[in-house]
Amino acid sequence: MNLTKTSKYLSMILRHRPEAAGIVLDEHGWAKVDELIAGIRKTQKFNMEMLEEIVRTDNKQRYSFNEDRSLIRANQGHSIPVDVEFPVTEPPGMLWHGTGEKYVASIDQKGLLSKGRLYVHLSGDRETAVKVGSRHGKPVVYRVNSGQMAADGYLFYRSVNGVWLTKEVPVRYLEKYSAAG
Ligand code: HQG
What does the alpha-carbon distance between residue 31 and residue 24 come to, in Å, rounded to a whole number? Predict the structure, then answer.
């Protein structure tokens, strides 16, 4: 069964608009699984087996259940103010951010801002950043001097699915790369 569309809908609900399924998230971003299934079922076929398959097969491991599978949340990417309890983590010396060419002038002026989300999302490797950037048109990749940022007191977090997060990246820590080379 192709669950891609349902997976996208799930990420919209768990990161941005839980009210679309008539549910609320708790302060840590958890949704009650039975309420979520009932909410999605109002508009399409949906059940626990489908939810488990989405969580298990998601290519970015976007979702986590709690231990008894009564709760589920998105691992990162939220725009609504929830505390997903990311551990503060010492970053590697450099991280990467992929974006679209259309944003470059603004980023070069203001640095990386979290825009609609709670954090700026950074990748541990350049290839992933190119993919993230491609979602926004012609990709442009920045190298982030995360080692210096950490030394200067900026906090970094790592989600359970390996995405690096920080509140902002000022221009002085950014170096532009073309996506190609
Ligand atoms: C850009 C996906 C203008 C920023 C990905 C990005 C990621 C600025 C866009 C996760 C700016 C926001 C997040 C500034 C930043 N001026 N534009 N000063 N500062 N921007 O989608 O990082 O598949 O909210 O460069 O893989 O693209 O959904 O963030 O282009 O991990 O699970 O503003 O979402 O994961 O776009 O992606 P987004 P993102 P999922």
Answer: 7
